[in-house]
Amino acid sequence: MILTPLLALLGIPVGLLLGYVAVEELDAGKKFFLVMKKFLFIFLSLISLYYLHLFTLALAIFLFIVVTLLFILEIKRHRLYLEFIVYIIFLTPLFLLPNQLYILLTTTLLFLYGFPIGSILYHERQKKQKRS
Hints:
Layout: H1 3-9, H2 11-21, H3 26-55, H4 57-76, H5 80-96, H6 100-131
Helix pairs in contact: 1-6, 2-6, 3-4, 3-6, 4-5, 5-6
């Protein structure tokens, strides 16, 4: 059970590694990574809302409000701490829901969600180092 969240969290280090290996492609791929991140965020939200709705409606409504606020904040201003809040929000139902399909889908999508986050983090760090 504890291995599942760890696998989901490995997406960020793999994204950092991807950024390290493909430094030249980060400028061209940044737009793609941002679109991929937003798509995966929406897909994770819909899957989580669906399975939480089956479990308890109150949690689904709470998650809907939190996810909507996070999405609006992400559009208005990009902050690193928001990425980690998203991970915590989507990791929490992994411990609540016994549905194996939900656990598999969420783990896979969170792993994929970490790819663009890690790559964008690496790209931004490289830009700051070049300015200094």
